Amino acid sequence: MSLRTIPILLVVALATSMAHAGGLPLRSKKIDAAVEKVQPSVVKIYGAKGFRGIYGYMTGIIVHESGLVLTRGSVTLEEVPAIKVHLHDGRRVMAEIVREDRRTKMVLLRLLGATKDKYPVAPLGDSSKVRTGQFVLLVGNAYKVALGRERCAVNLGMVNAIAKLDARIGLSDFHYNGPVILHDAMNNPGVYGGPLVNLSGDVIGLSGRLVESRDTNHQVHYALPVNVLKPFIEDTLTRPGAKRIYTGSGTQKNPEPEDKPAGFHGIMILKGGVIRATPAYVDRVVPNSPAAKAGMRPDDLIIKIDESRVKSWKSFRRLMAGYRAGETVKLTVKRGDDVKLVVFELAVAPRG
């Protein structure tokens, strides 16, 4: 044995003893049990492949035995003729979007196809008990290696902080202003939408895409706390006929905006595209409508509604469906070589 190998062996031996003495052995039965508890409820989702950096696969968790799946909103789910979901046991089923949460950008899918089986449900924990320094597991469809019965990838990490983010996603702002769980578990492509799990196997958060800090320009791994998402799930289950866009505000005495009349704007969008829907070009503006009074014109290209990007005429209709009469909307439009901001208040849709 050379003298050069001694320091290396000492480091390895020291790291091994510290791992066992520090509470987490190199091969932890507790981790194994946590993974086994959550894996059956984790699904692999396949949809549209978008622009550079947008992958056509992601992750979700089953949150109700009837086949309700919670995941993160993404281009992967938009303008796609069919959403495919691969279950833990290898079955492949189709799914459709049931509801979207405007505030958190989360989406609920419904698994399609008649079945008498009850789907395995993710064990939702209590994110208020999450503490800085605790170990966590991030489970997901990393690099789409789990195409059938293969198990989803698992990454071990630690909670670094619980804080609000001043960040951006690509060129867009990160607009959720509540606290998130910051962690250092590797968030590989396809993992977003997957569960962040404690060592008891309970889901404490749902993984978002990597965001970039405005302060340091470094990328940050985060998860939305599960307690923030529970009302979205519960409201969808108790009110199956509710509007597609969930706003997450209000009480019975103060009804949610989604329970108010649909908003009327007066913008007629040019529809087209068989394989991929065309961009949101304005075809016509109804005279004396809110949009007309605000200065909208035919041939305007709508690129953003408030802070949400408009990728096609379909996404324009979907996003606008979440606004109610009396709400103010801010449209970013491209008119020729100029980019303009058009702001107006939605009215009640005229009769007839």
Question: Helices, strands, pairings?
Answer:
Blueprint: H1 5-21, H2 29-38, E1 42-46, E2 57-64, E3 68-72, E4 83-86, E5 92-101, E6 106-111, E7 135-140, E8 153-163, E9 167-169, E10 172-173, E11 180-183, E12 195-197, E13 203-207, E14 211-213, E15 219-225, H3 226-238, E16 245-246, E17 263-264, E18 267-269, E19 282-285, H4 290-294, E20 301-305, E21 308-309, H5 313-320, E22 328-335, E23 338-345, E24 347-348
Parallel strand pairs: 5-16
Antiparallel strand pairs: 1-2, 1-4, 2-3, 3-6, 4-5, 5-6, 7-8, 7-12, 8-11, 9-10, 9-14, 11-15, 12-13, 13-15, 14-15, 17-24, 18-19, 20-21, 20-22, 22-23
Summary keywords:
34% strand, 352 residues, Thrombin, subunit H, 24 strands, Pdz3 Domain, alpha+beta, 2 domains, 6-stranded antiparallel β-barrel, 5 helices
Structure description:
The longest helix is centred in the first third of the chain and has 17 residues, at 5-21. The chain folds into 2 domains: 1-239, Beta Barrel (Thrombin, subunit H), CATH 2.40.10.120; 260-348, Pdz3 Domain. Mean pLDDT is 81; it is low at 1-22 and 250-255. A hairpin with a 2-residue loop joins β20 (301-305) and β21 (308-309). The protein is an alpha+beta fold. The chain is built from 5 helices and 24 strands.
- Characterize the main sheet: 6 strands, antiparallel, barrel
- Based on helices, strands and strand pairing, what is the structural class? alpha+beta
**Which CATH class of the largest domain is shown?**
Mainly Beta
Strand order of the largest sheet: 1-2-3-6-5-4
> Tell me, what's the shape?
globular
Calculate the mean pLDDT score and round it.
81
